[in-house]
Amino acid sequence: MPTNHLRFALASALAVVLAAGCAAPVITPTVVRDPKFNYPATDAKAVTIYTNPPAAEYEVIGEVRTRVSANTPMDRVEAALKEEAAKIGATGVVMVVKGVVTEQKIQRPAAGSQQPIGTSGAPGGGGVATLPTQTGRTEEVTIQVHEKEITGVVIRFKK
Question: All domains of the chain, ordered by start, with CATH?
Fold first, then answer.
């Protein structure tokens, strides 16, 4: 493959990856239903999110869990929790949010020698900026990933 075609293919692939990263994250909670309860589904709009247990009497009918990026809007998280909790008959979810930071190793292109990209400074000053060139090698780096770990106790009020 000629060099220009290879560069275009790499640039196109990078653009697709960056665009995918900008898309709204998919929130997929896991629901665990207590097997001793078998209630019909409720309307997700009628499920209330609580940060503390409510004063009224209720049964714990299950649990809902998910992990999302730290910058995921909480209204989207709450909507996903309500939707899943409603499937097992919930009237409320007592939600606990915990911040989690993990370290992950990733591969990135290794930079090679420096390549001049232009001059800067006052006329006659002659400063030169440089940019690393790609070598075709990769290097492993460690990054920190900030997430929210959400656990919801799925409840149903007693009548």
Answer: 24-101+145-157 (3.30.110.70), 106-139 (no CATH)
